[in-house]
User: Fold Adenosine 3'-phospho 5'-phosphosulfate transporter 2 from Cladocopium goreaui.
Amino acid sequence: MAPIREPRVVLVGVPLHRLSRNHQLPCLALLVLISSILAAALQERVLYVPGFRYTGWLAFLTSFTYMALAMVERVVERDLLRRGSFAEYVKLSFLTMGGMYFTNFSLHYLSYSLRVVFKSSKLVPVMLLGVVYLKKRYTVAQYAAVGLLTAGVVVFTLGDAKGRAFFNPVGIAFIVAGSLSDAMAANYEEKVFFSRMGCSASEVVLYSSALGSVWALLAEAFTGELLPALRHSWDHLEAVPLMLFASVFGYIAQSGVLLLIKHFGATAAEIVKSCRKVTTILISFMVYGKPWNGYHVAGTLLFVNSVAVERFNSGASKRFATLLFSMAGLVALRLVFGGVGPSTFSVVIDAGSAGTRVNVFRFDAWNLKLLDINGAAQVFVEEEPGVGDLNSSALALQLSRLLGVAMATVPMGQRQVTPLALRATRALEDLNNQQVDDLLDQMKSHIAAAGFKDAGIQPMGGSEEAIAEWTSVNMLMGCFQPGLRGVHSPVAIVDLGGATVQIAYYLHDRQASEAKRKHLDGYISRIKLPFGSGPVHIYRHSYGGYGLYSAKVRSYKEIEQAGFGLKRHPCLPSGISASLRVQRRAVVAEGAMNRFSCATLIDYILHKELPCMKDGQAAGPPKMGNCSFAGAWMGPGPGPQKVVLASYFYDRMRDVGMVSNYSQTIRAAVFAEQADRACSVTGSGLNTNSAPPKSMLEFPGLSMERLRWLCFDLTFQARLLQALGMAESQELLVVKKIQYHSLNFEASWALGVAIGQLNK
Assistant:
């Protein structure tokens, strides 16, 4: 009797059949795990290339690479005979390409980790089709493993929805369609190609991928995605090798899975793939800095339990499987029913030009979701004046009081791990370098004694402030989401402070690429969104010296210059004098109210510099988009993005009674209308002893100082918005605070800095 010949098990040239039968499965499973993890890590990295959303193009390149590698493998093995029928391969290619295409398309709505987890539920339809289509029978333990696996998918899905505060069922519909296609393909391969026709794994991959790449290319052409995808790959060449290498490792994993199906059955293959997906998720969270929560951990442990039950049923390592099942089950139950995880804090001190503010935020340590602090959104305390106007002893007292607020909020046991960041914006601009260094050293010594984790005590540039402000506002308005888009319905931010004007808005990738080609990328930043949502490009610019207080100083200087032709200030009420501190000295101007001359003076201040100046010289007409003022390029503009106005915009609209809530939508024309009203009402003059009755009735509750400058402030804001291209009919959202999960947070850059510190 002839000896029974062992079947050949070869994976990309590795002869696994030379190993004993007991060692073939673990070695093959290990190769599948390693290659799958590398493929998934590289593929997810592709999603973080700016502007990438071409999942169909990714499916095409993957299928094409599979086809090329399978052809090389068959040539090397000298196995060119096709055993499967062409008609059957057409059917299989529709299933395999459908699984890949739908699964990739779900990334438009789901995070990569949730997509990976949900695909693991494919074991359920695989077993169901195995019973119906292949007439298989499964044990109670195998059904229990599937039940635990399904529970893990559900719990992990809840964790992703909870942690991101975003969940789109459309993505689930696509991932379900992809999982069903994959499940049908796995059973079809086992019954038709491996059991009945005796095809090799490389043959199945070659013909199914060749036909699948044709279907993917046709789908790309039909949807109109092909040319934009090609342009994106041309602009971002780094994406192409990432996709190709991901496909190479994916091919190794796919070939290994087919060998598992052929020699060990579809169910064994799916269990190995489930283990691979759990490991992939773990690495994805660690490599790309994603926040975990209790549901994520519980879902992963349920996956582990499903593997433990399967191993117990196989008769191997029963003690280990029992221990693993018991421990994982207890931890999973504790996390699911134990509520949110522990909290963590972040402290940010804003040393501004007009005052110093301490901000304390509390986050869920699992998912970094913002939490309340004793029922309040955050701890916010402000003291005046700014640190630049304080002597050594006064600075020590101010910092001591503000640090006392932070120490009273953060428990002593958490201070060493709580980051404290101090950022000085324009508070130090009037000091020389030695004075700045001395002041920073003094602040460092006071803060070090408080026992917090040092997150930097340093000046803050205007661009950094604009980015942090944009991050804060978009975070609070729920604009960040998982999936390819990263940011959903972003808003533009214009913040008018005492010394600067900050503007920032989202840019499409093609706009950022065009700006780079036009050598205007100095206005563009590529930033990483909070909590693993991916990177985006934003336009940001800081108009230094054009804040509300700085504009008043500029107006005084212009009046002093004979060339302007004015002896008195046209924006101040007639018959009064007003003084300002300029570089630690007082300057005085006499009022001579004329609202038309006031608007002319402010326009001259805004547009004194030539449009889009560069190095003091006119750069000619804008190369892309428009110029705004102060010689700055405005960029292509926010377009349909909603514009949010913060800081002094809100304060003055509140002064004139146009806003009654923490946030309110008004037309841009309201600023000009209220400027005319303020200039008319206060034009008759104010004095230090009394105010005209009309002013008191029109603007009740305002101080004498506020009434004096009301005409200037509102006129400046109206002309500023006009210079930034805001149409009179445009709807603008004026904010002081933004409601986030029933909590009202300050609309300031401090939250953006706090989030950045926790993400490190």
